[in-house]
Every structure is written in structure tokens, then in C-alpha cells.
Write a structure and sequence with these properties.
alpha/beta; TIM Barrel; 11 strands; globular; binds 6-deoxy-beta-L-fructofuranose; binds manganese (II) ion
Length: about 425
């Protein structure tokens, strides 16, 4: 399924008048406050977030999985679905593959499909948290940290194979997330597990092409429930420093213990030039992988406020990898991803309205009330007309969810694919 340009035009005609009215009102207000509205809109239009290839079907938990009919049953259909999201939002111009869930059968064909939909290949993800059929070694007791050298070598080779696959697709980064850890006290020697992981990551790092990055993702628990080798940003940072300049920390928003100050973590990683990228989602309790901005929108805004500050003041930190990592138990996967994109863009737009110089001056005056007024003034601004304009200028739709439904996209996918297709992934 491909959404045609004339369908986009017809959908936009429905909302154009109200859009122009609200944009004029907001632009006049912001221009009076010396904001460069067009500069903000072009930053939003340039801001592309990668869609996870493992989140285009219905997710599930150990308690059950409820299918969403018309799911993509191969990589080509997954990229078509990313194409649908991108043609509506114009902010999803990349896909992040997970190996072996998404090994291309025909590289030329898959690159042609992606090119035709203006989709790039972002970071590729290795998977040493599941045993593959006829694999010689098991990852039951860990992979890169495993006490068995044979298991570690199998896991290292898998990561080198993933780099090779990504290289053929034009990807420039490897994301490593390890489930490695323990479920009971005494099960692991923490130092041995950490040192094995460091040595294994260094072996993988040696296979990293010159212009690639290694993104080391941390997580406090699950599937291990007593210790996780790469449990937090500190462990990831130490391992990245142990590898070298091309290794960075990846922040998955759901991978923090309750009430963690993620914006502070993001700020300091940027200061140290070691922030590599994000897995955007939201959560109330654990790694719930819910829609970004659906539970803690102010927290997402505060993270983007630190990112905007960092993008201006921390040239030592590289361009970031922007990716979503979510799982859909009760929503249409494509609608869920569209809502995440909207929340991410909205948080970025609001953060671009923070007068960083005024905030800095208020901080130097210890004028705590004024600091909050500056932040919340930006957060309380309805920036949606700016997002709409960015989409319009990029050839997208003013209201993606409304268009997705009025174009009956899900019904169209079910007509094309039937009701029994299951997408690979979580
Ligand atoms: C682990 C994680 C990691 C992926 C997986 C699909 O919780 O966030 O990024 O490999 O989800
Ligand atoms: Mn993740």
C-alpha cells in the first residue's frame, strides 16, 4: 500500500483554513517575542526519527498477544508500513532493523523499496538475548559476559555479522543491548561479567567501520531480575570509554528506575560528548514501551530542553540517533507510532521556544521562580500549528491520525495482507 499525493492534498484541504488561522495567531505571538518562526519550522521538518522494525505488528506480554490484522509478514512490507507513516508525517524517514528478525533476503530489492519511499537505514540492532535455531551455544546465562569463551565468541561474531548486514544497507551504527545479568544473588561474579563484556565489546569495536558508531544501551532489569551487567548510564559510559571514540551511550527512556532524572543524565552525557542516541517511549512503572509522551509529557519536554541546550553548547557531542522503541498491546501499531512522532516533535518544538539565554541569566541570579516561568511558558505553548506547517511544507498531512483513519489504511492493509499475517519482533 502506498499513499498517493492527491490523497494527501484532499485530506489537507479539509483542515487548511483552521490551520492557517491558528498558525497566523501563533506566528504573530512568537514573532512579537523575537522568535524566528520559520527557523523553528525548518528544524522540525529536518527532524527525522527512525521507526523500529520490530514494532510494526502487535506487541505482547507473557500474558498474551492480541493481533492487529494486516500486519507486515516480511521486511519489504515493514518498510512499506514505515513508508505509510512517513508519507503522512514526513518525520519518519528512517528504519532501525533488528537482526535476525529482519535479515534482508535481497539487499538490492530492499534498498530500492526504501529509496522509493525516502526511507534510510538507521542503526542496526544485534540480538544475543534469544537463542537462534541450530545455534551451537546458548545465551541462557548471558552472551558477551558469559563465563564460557565459546558463548562470548559466538555473540561477538553475531555482532560482526550485524555490522556487515548494516554496512550493505548503508547503516552507520550498531546498537548493542544485552539482557546479560542474573536472577539471584551469588549467581554472577559482577567483576568477571563486566570485564568479559568490556573485552567482548572491544573485539566488536575492532570490527566497526571507520565512520560507524557503537551505541551501548543500558537497562536496570528484565529479563534478569537481580542484576544486569549494563544496568545504567554509568556502566554504559564506562564500557563506551573502554572501547573508544566511536562508542557512545544510548538512552532508552523506559530503562530507568522510577523517578530517575533522565534529563540530567542526558545533559551530563552530552557534556562528556558520549550521548549517542535515544529509544523514545514512555512508561509508568517499568520498561512499558508505551507511546512517547503519553504518560510523562513534561519529562519528555525537559529532556528536549537539555538536548536543545546541548546541541547549542556541546559541539563535542556528535549528531544523535533519534529512534522510537515501543510495543503496541492495545493500539494499531501505525497509529501508536504516529502519536509517538507527534509527541516527540511537540516536545522538540516547545524546547525550541525556551529562551536559553534568559534561563541562564535567571539561573545565575538564582531566580528560581523565573527559571520555572521560562520553562513552563514554553511548555504551555500550543505548538501544533508549527508541526502542521512543517508537515505541510514537507508534503505530509496536517493531521496524520485523522488522515490515516479517513483513508482507511488499516482496512486497506487487511484487504492486501489478510488477517493472519504476524510481524516478526517482540
Ligand atoms: C530492550 C530493548 C532493546 C531492544 C529490544 C527490542 O528492552 O529496549 O532496545 O533490542 O528492546
Ligand atoms: Mn530499546
Amino acid at each position: 500500500m502506498k499513499i498517493q499525493e492527491e490523497q494527501i492534498q484532499i485530506e489537507n484541504q479539509k483542515d487548511l483554513a483552521s490551520h492557517v488561522e491558528s498558525l497566523d495567531f501563533l506566528s504573530n505571538k512568537l514573532t512579537k517575542q523575537n522568535y524566528d518562526v520559520n527557523a523553528i519550522i525548518s528544524k522540525l521538518a529536518d527532524f527525522q526519527v527512525a521507526i523500529p522494525s520490530w514494532a510494526l505488528g502487535a506487541g505482547g506480554t507473557r500474558f498474551g498477544r492480541f493481533s492487529y490484522f494486516g500486519e507486515p509478514s516480511n521486511l519489504e512490507q515493514k518498510i512499506e508500513d514505515v513508508g505509510i507513516i512517513h508519507s503522512l508525517t514526513k518525520t519518519a524517514g528512517a528504519v532501525s532493523l533488528h537482526i535476525p528478525w529482519d535479515v534482508p533476503e535481497d539487499y538490492t530489492a530492499i534498498k530500492e523499496v526504501a529509496n522509493s519511499l525516502d526511507i534510510k537505514f538507521d542503526a542496526v540492532n544485534s540480538n544475543t538475548f534469544q537463542d537462534q535455531k541450530n545455534a551451537k551455544e546458548s545465551y541462557k546465562y548471558g552472551s558477551l559476559s558469559n563465563v564460557s569463551q565459546a558463548v562470548r565468541e559466538q555473540a561477538i561474531q553475531h555482532n560482526l555479522d550485524v555490522i556487515n548486514i548494516g554496512n550493505k544497507l548503508g547503516s552507520k551504527a550498531l546498537t548493542v543491548w544485552l539482557a546479560d545479568g542474573s536472577c539471584f544473588p551469588g549467581q554472577n561474579n559482577f567483576q568477571t561479567a563486566f570485564q568479559n563484556t568490556q573485552d567482548s565489546l572491544i573485539d566488536i569495536y575492532k570490527g566497526l567501520p571507520q565512520d560507524w558508531k557503537m551505541l551501548i544501551e543500558y537497562k536496570p532489569y528484565e529479563p534478569n531480575f537481580y542484576s544486569t551487567v549494563i544496568q545504567d548510564w554509568g556502566a554504559s559510559l564506562m564500557l563506551a570509554n573502554g572501547c573508544g571514540d566511536k562508542a557512545y551511550t544510548l538512552v532508552d527512556l523506559g530503562h530507568h528506575l522510577p523517578n530517575s532524572n533522565i534529563e540530567q543524565i542526558v545533559s551530563i552525557l552530552q557534556l562528556k560528548g558520549k550521548l549517542g542516541g535515544f529509544h523514545f517511549n514512555d512508561s509508568k512503572y517499568g520498561d512499558d514501551d508505551l507511546t512517547a509522551g503519553s504518560i510523562k509529557p513534561y519529562a519528555l519536554f525537559l529532556i528536549f530542553n537539555e538536548l536543545v541546550y546541548g546541541m547549542k553548547n556541546n559541539p563535542q557531542n556528535p549528531d544523535l540517533a533519534w529512534m522510537i522503541d515501543a510495543s503496541h498491546n492495545v493500539k494499531d501499531p501505525l497509529e501508536d507510532l504516529i502519536q509517538s512522532l507527534e509527541a516527540i516533535q511537540e516536545s522538540y518544538a516547545k524546547a525550541l521556544l525556551v529562551d536559553q539565554d534568559a534561563l541562564k541569566a535567571a539561573q545565575l541570579d538564582n531566580d528560581v521562580v523565573k527559571c520555572q516561568e521560562i520553562l513552563q511558558g514554553a511548555f504551555r505553548t500550543d505548538v501544533r500549528p508549527l508541526l502542521e506547517k512543517a508537515r505541510l511544507l514537507s508534503g505530509g498531512v496536517l493531521n496524520p491520525i485523522k488522515a490515516y483513519r479517513s483513508l482507511d489504511v488499516r482496512e486497506g492493509l487487511i484487504r492486501e495482507r489478510g488477517k493472519n499475517t504476524i510481524a516478526t519482533g517482540l
